[in-house]
Amino acid sequence: MKKLQWDFYSKDTLSVAQNLLGKILVHEINGKRLSGRIVETEAYRGITDKAAHSYGGRRTNRTEIMYGTPGFSYVYMIYGMYYCFNIVTEKEDIPEAVLIRALEPLESLDKISLNRYNKSFSSLNKAQIKNLANGPGKLCNALAIGKSENKVDLCNGSLYVAKDDINDFNIKSAKRIGISYAQEAANYPWRFYIENNIYVSAK
DNA sequence: ACCAGGATAATCT
DNA sequence: GATTATCCTGGTA
Hints:
Layout: H1 6-9, H2 13-19, E1 24-29, E2 32-44, E3 73-78, E4 82-88, E5 97-107, H3 109-117, H4 126-130, H5 136-142, E6 159-162, E7 171-174, E8 191-194
Antiparallel strand pairs: 1-2, 1-6, 2-5, 2-8, 3-4, 4-5, 7-8
This protein binds a DNA duplex through strand 3, strand 4 and helix 5.
Family: Belongs to the DNA glycosylase MPG family.
Keywords: DNA damage, DNA repair, Glycosidase, Hydrolase
Pfam family, one: Pur_DNA_glyco
């Protein structure tokens, strides 16, 4: 499986958000591959997007990475207890990113289950399996993504997105989640997900 | 099934 | 001091 490279991420954010669906997010830890298929994403379109951290050109320590090279990670803490994992898109000085919202767990299921519930995968019920990574905070927990994974190069390291040639799914779009403060931007259909996939966080 | 409310701290103003 | 790109629990039905 090949790591997606710079050219994949250096496109307009709405395209990258859709193109990421079906790809595999991989975190290699001590030679073990923790991975899941990306089934839900959201686009955050920088300067003109009231829901984006970089809205209006806001440039702080936290958002600085969004102004940098595409293909880097942007991980931030939210609500004091969860991390969200984003991938920087576009080009330098255009502060846009894609939030990864949900994964279908694929490899190292036991490790993923331990990270989430401190239980072995075989002891999980159906609901617990579904809830392993169907949300931005959950998937960070599942794949052990935290602040040390902020600002890393996804084209060259132990955290990356791998190409996968599956195409047999439909893409649906919908309003983004958790941004009701963002006025008209709250209604933009910039959330994308794989139709009928049970690991999507919301319909 | 479906709410309502609370946990909890980094970040920004 | 206010806000927050979330998740879980415990109530009612």
